[in-house]
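Case study B.
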Amino acid sequence: MALIVQKFGGSSVANAERVFNVAEIITNTFKQGNDVVVVLSAQGDTTDDLIEKANEINPKPSKREMDMLLSTGEQISIALMAMAIEKLGFPVVSLTGWQVGMKTDSTYGNARIKKVEPERIQSELGTGKIVLVAGFQGINKYDDITTLGRGGSDTSAVALAVALKADLCQIYTDVDGIYTADPRVVKDAKKLEEITYDEMLELASLGAQVMHNRSVEMAKRYSVHLEVLSSFTRNPGTKIKEVPQMEKMHVSGVASDKRTARISLIGLEDVPGIAFKIFSVLAQKKINVDIILQSIGRGNTKDISFTVADNSLNAAVEMLNANRDIIGFKDITVNDRICKLSIVGAGMVNNAGVAAKMFEALSNASVNIQMISTSEIKISVLIDRDDEERALKAVHAMFFNN
Amino acid sequence: MALIVQKFGGSSVANAERVFNVAEIITNTFKQGNDVVVVLSAQGDTTDDLIEKANEINPKPSKREMDMLLSTGEQISIALMAMAIEKLGFPVVSLTGWQVGMKTDSTYGNARIKKVEPERIQSELGTGKIVLVAGFQGINKYDDITTLGRGGSDTSAVALAVALKADLCQIYTDVDGIYTADPRVVKDAKKLEEITYDEMLELASLGAQVMHNRSVEMAKRYSVHLEVLSSFTRNPGTKIKEVPQMEKMHVSGVASDKRTARISLIGLEDVPGIAFKIFSVLAQKKINVDIILQSIGRGNTKDISFTVADNSLNAAVEMLNANRDIIGFKDITVNDRICKLSIVGAGMVNNAGVAAKMFEALSNASVNIQMISTSEIKISVLIDRDDEERALKAVHAMFFNN
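Model:
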């Protein structure tokens, strides 16, 4: 008998039929003798509908009131799921964020979890009940409702797994695990049985979009065993835990991310402090910079190129132009027709051959590389967006076929 | 400067336009220098929509989970209203039932308020904010959400007025006060400037349907000054307080109630204890009996007739037939084509002439009276439902036209 935390996303509980599908997964886990704590997101479009209702009244409401509004979505989900589980004849109780003592800071709309007081859940589990918890929400020191921002329900689930010392935290989504590449693009992509936290972190930030980094980081910090699996199949998913296979060269997957754009500043003075000026200007607007490439100085000028999230592009360019005199560049160019292609793998840093194999695959597929960036467990290249699919297939085939 | 509690029903906040209409009433009250605490119901059909969602999953959910579900409706209302008031540029905060310490017993679906802890509201008022409170909901000793049942939001408002020692509790509905008769039927019905608690109680139970008795009873017990008025006009409403005009004959209004049905038990043995048997059988099923009429015994048998709410009729007949041997009646007859017509007035008991005038009016209009019931401040007659409108107009004209 184990204590298992299960999290189901909004699409998994979008209508009555899907609610019963999930109720079956939950009660099957319970029937096997496990203690089960379930975190639920709002049903399907509920959150969007509530946002639309708010917009109609006030396009710029306070974040506190927005949280008061949005937190109802998850509350509706847990109540309906409890009714479904009652219908199936199992003991169940639903609890909101404040009822489970999900204490957060006061950053409405994007609150951070400070601690979880597990007593209520433990006492409900002690009476033999399945416990349903509203994800995405918490309560601050003023007893006001907060929401956790993007990836919030995943984070709720991991935080509960930490507080309850759960044996396993299962994240149910609409994909049945982590693949070596996006299976919609690369038909022979393989599902991974397991993957390390760091690999998962790189894959998430590279656009694999299965779990939000924040929850994976928390799971890593507290060594929570995660499993990503689908609520629509009954297949085993991908386990995420700290079991790197250091012995062999190990590439876990290939990911591509289109939501990126490149900015190049041309003709910068080749003196110390230029990079600092550029990136502190961008930091003022909280614009995150990803890959940075600085050319070797030619004469007394140099160029700096870097990528930003595509939805930050306009703000970044505006900010740079406004500070043109301070930074001192001759020209600024922009390319939003790019794509970042990455391979991720824990053993990579010990294997010089990995980068070479990736570049060979791209060369064979006639894909031009614009920028390169490497980390301990990742190699990313910036390529033309039109080359994305061809490059993804070529690199995947190089590492995973045969 | 006064402390005013205002309550707005679901139809008053049904859409964005109406939300802003109510926001204007609230902020006008606030601009006049008052402390304002507002209780809101769920928007329009929200509660019905939520019940339908629940029914789709489980037609017999636990009441605890139903309360978890339904309480979201009022939470949505307060958040949206707060956004509207923010848009108008006023300081505001919305609070749920548990945030305002609305402590109830644990009768889910029909909870009774035990006490209100006013500290949170008082501290928000102290910082100059308009305070919005979710009606209809509370929290029990287990920290679980409860709902207050029928008339719940009115009761929330009165309970808050008591706890905060408010100067006035305004109940905004879709009628602009209490009339001498239903103005949809009697065109020259007059709006009352004021009325006593007891008169209001009789009118409410007689189908005037403006406020639920429960909230009027609480207002009477704690001498809360009530005002009933419309959110759609800016007219003054009807004040409800303890100012009976004992000197003159005083009929406040005429009301009729169709939601009633008559049951007659024929051929009962004329011995003591029969009435007890009948009404204890009905009490087992929590069926309330209204008017009771017992015939004078003829020989060794008698008949008893009584009225019940029409939606209890089938259950009552079923229960009586099941206990036929115990009660011992020869026949049971039912009439669901009846209507209860009543006149209400505080000074009535001291004026024998009032009943006579009422019966004269009915006689002139050729309305047959089936049963009569009187109380300190009320005379009710049971008549054929087809006579309702004619009787209502005749009785109203008798007392109010001249």
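The domain at 3-174 of chain B is CATH 3.40.1160.10 (Carbamate kinase). The remaining cases will be described in the next quarterly update.
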